[in-house]
Amino acid sequence: MRRRTTKKARHGVRRFTCLLAAVLTLGACGIAPTEVRGLGRPPVISYSPTWVTVYLLSDGRLVPKKIPVGSDSAKNIVDTLFRAGKQLPRFRTGKQLPIKGLTSALNDFSHHGTETTRYHDDNQRNDPAGNLGYRLSVIVTGGHEMSREGLAQITCTIRQNKQESIWSVEVTRLFPGQPKTWGEHTCFEYRDLAAKGVRLPP
């Protein structure tokens, strides 16, 4: 006794027949599946860091050292200066020494922030165009009295990298205790602290 074919079964057969015909038609048109091919290593983005010059100390004298930074903003430059003085590479003996024998007078302080203000000093600048320069306020925390060498490190580092825009540097301690400022400076006044053969910025 033959089984009657249901509508559902007949519909399934027709669907399979249509799919088979479609596959055969594509094959007849010359379309063949392709293999996955490797295209080699992904592209590598090269990164060229910006180099800035910071001033550290050797026997109390200012010595320049080039250090790579992500950007040459004033904040990054000052951050790099403070960080450079505290980086103590570890040797096989386990003893820690400052970078290549250099030290810093800023290790008791931390950089809190920087602010720029515009000003024009007619007594120091003979600028007929009337261009305005900037004063950079460097705000620190910690420590007590900042030494002349520490002020020279900050001032000369900023002036070395920002001579065109920053005319003077002011250093202020925010805390502990009452806020205190050590005044406004240029690197020229610290020329007596330059190590032998080192030429400081103005």
Structure explained in plain terms:
Helix 2 (74-86) crosses helix 3. It contains 3 helices and 6 strands, in the order H-E-E-H-E-E-H-E-E. Helix 3 links the parallel strand 4 and strand 5. The termini are far apart. The protein has helices spanning 7-28, 74-86, 148-161; strands spanning 50-58, 61-69, 109-119, 133-142, 166-173, 180-185. It has one domain (50-193). It is 24% helix and 26% strand. The chain is an alpha+beta fold.
Count of the separate structural domains: 1
The radius of gyration over CA amounts to 34 Å
Gap between N and C termini: 111 Å
Give the integer mean of the pLDDT values.
79
Note poorly predicted spans.
89-98
The count of DSSP E runs of length 2 or more, i.e. the number of strands, is: 6
Helical content class = 10-25%
- Please trace the helix and strand order, writing H or E for each element: HEEHEEHEE
Widest beta sheet: strand line-up = 3-4-5-6
* Main β sheet profile: 4 strands, mixed
The secondary structure category is alpha+beta
Our count of helices gives 3
Specify the overall morphology: elongated
Strand content: 25-35%
